[in-house]
Amino acid sequence: MRNVALIVRRELLAYLRTPSGWVIAALVLLVNGLAFNAWAVGNEARESTVVLVRYLDFAGGMAIVTAALFSMRLLAEERASGTHVLLFTSPIREHEIVLGKYLASLVFVTLVLLASLYLPALIFIRGKVSWGHIFSGYLGLVLLGATTLAIGTFASSLVRHPFLAVLVTGAFAGLLELCWWAALVAEPPLRDILAYLAPFYGHYRPELERGTLRLSDLVFFASLSWLSLVAATRVLKTQRWQ
Predict the structure, then answer these.
(1) What is the C-alpha to C-alpha distance for residues 130 and 135, in angstroms, rounded to an integer?
(2) For residues 141, 225, 22 and 42, what is the CA-based torsion angle, rounded to 10 degrees?
(3) Among residues 12, 78, 148, 191, which one has the fewest Cβ atoms lying within 10 Å of its Cβ?
């Protein structure tokens, strides 16, 4: 764990010292703020719960986009800058590299997502919603971000350019969500299987976004993240001995 902690510290310092992380964070918070005002609140009279659900619906999509953008700082950037040679020749195991980079990105993405908590808190000025609903929604945002980052870690291990890592991450995440749309025209039991594979439409939107916390959803996000990180570790092992 010492090597993992060193990588996490190195990566977090890199996020804090480079402008790219701050620019992405500022843009995400700006877009979320505009969406809360224009889409969630709007010009019509709405119930407080409806405002919260509409905001969380948009914020869920932004959580996926945010995590995909941060995936450019994962493994692909090491190869693009040539520093992957230092990692491969150091006494650090592949799973430690993957886990360290993933955890550092997850910490930064989580802080960006939590920085927008003031938006649902504004609902209390003229309305009232459950703090449990807010907790469930933001837990869902973090889980969406964590899962997309894990997918991005795997995608980043496959390519050599950071921007390409973002595109591949978006493609993988998009394919998973397409499973939900494919489920609409499929027959059971294939319909249930396809719907289960979609993180946003199959787990976040129908449950966490609406304040319902289920163990099955937590298991899904954890399992998909774990499988993605294991796959990234396997790819890294292959590249290390080429």
Answers:
(1) 9
(2) -20
(3) 191
Of 106, 76, 69, which is closest to residue 235 (Cα–Cα)?
Answer: 76
With CA atoms as reference, report the closest residue to 4 among 94, 81, 66: 94
Largest separation between any pair of C-alpha atoms in the chain: 62
> Which long-range contacts link 200-208 to residues 24+ away (Cβ below 8 Å)?
200/60, 200/61, 200/64, 200/144, 201/177, 203/140, 204/60, 204/140, 204/143, 204/144, 205/57, 205/60, 207/140, 208/136, 208/137, 208/139, 208/140, 208/143
pLDDT in tens, 56-84: 999 999 999 999 998 877 877 766 666 66
28 band by pLDDT with thresholds 50, 70 and 90: very high
pLDDT tens digits, one per residue of 166-188? 999 999 999 999 999 999 999 98
Measured CA distances, 148 to 59, 70, 105, 169 (Å): 14, 10, 11, 7
Separation CA 140–CA 59 (nearest Å): 10
Residue of 226, 55, 237 lying closest to 149 (CA atoms): 226
* C-beta neighbour count of 86 within 10 angstroms: 10
Whether this model's pTM surpasses 0.85: yes
Structure tokens at 184: 């609409």
Res 112: pLDDT:
95
d(CA 74, CA 215): 29
